[in-house]
Known about the structure:
By secondary structure, this protein is of the alpha/beta class. The protein has ten helices and 16 strands. The protein has helices spanning 27-42, 56-61, 72-82, 94-97, 101-111, 133-143, 162-170, 174-181, 197-200, 287-305, and strands at 2-4, 12-19, 46-53, 86-91, 112-120, 124-125, 131-132, 146-150, 154-155, 158-159, 186-192, 206-209, 220-228, 231-240, 253-258, 269-280.
Amino acid sequence: MLHYSNLSELHLGKTWLTIGSFDGVHIGHQSLLKRLIVGAHSQQAAAVVMTFHPHPAVVLRGKNEPFYLTGQDEKRSLLENQGVDACISVEFNLAVAAYTAEYFLSQVCRQIQLDKLLVGQGFALGRGRTGDTLMLEKLGKSLGYSMEVVPPVMREGVVVSSSQIRQYIGQSDLLNASHFLGRNYSVSGIVSHGDGRGSSLGFPTANIATSRLRLLPGNGVYACRVKLGEETRLAVANIGVRPTFEHTETTPHLEVHILDFDRVLYGELISIEFMAFLRGEQRFTSAGELVEQIQRDVQKAREILK
């Protein structure tokens, strides 16, 4: 898959294009992408995705709490796995936010031979979101493209959306999150140095440094699979503020105990795939009581993961 970081790099021939944030690349996105790819290739056109980073909500609404379902590299990998020919990652800033839909798409059409634009229901583009689907369809008549609005995907009466998936993940509802994503939720990060408390308890943990805006499941303990390069291992992850030992911490930490593993991982990138929620975060009266519970967590994780 080709990747472009700005419009000036583009020199594409006949193109079918879709535009959006595509955070999570969930089954709703996948439905739209399938229509894009099959349709484009049937017409000997390129299937191209234009996405934005940072998310418009960060720039326009000052959103600063964790919410991203995918990092940039992960998103591009997921798009490539779907079969997209090219991805355009546009830096979203106040200048881009001020563009009208007419101006933005006219600039796009200067760089590519836009044949068809596919968007989801409720999509809007440009300053003040004035470029709704009706306006974009009308604009296509002057810019030379046709347009298709792809209906949303429903699951048990609920529209599949990134915001709904965020809600499920925040509630530790991994089952519904995975149904909407089309895969288990995973988070990647660099292994960083911790305080060594896990090792002192007999359960060494890898402390994972993630992006400040990356969404983690709700505080608690999870059965996981951990990917280390090409190797996959079973693990137990803890997300929380470590209430047995900490009294002032408010920012959740992600720590992973990899089962039957003793290699040092500092500085390595690992991916944690959340398989099942085991229990909520608890405060224990002693380190011994905590160790006993961790032993039960590990045993339960082994039973689930095997």
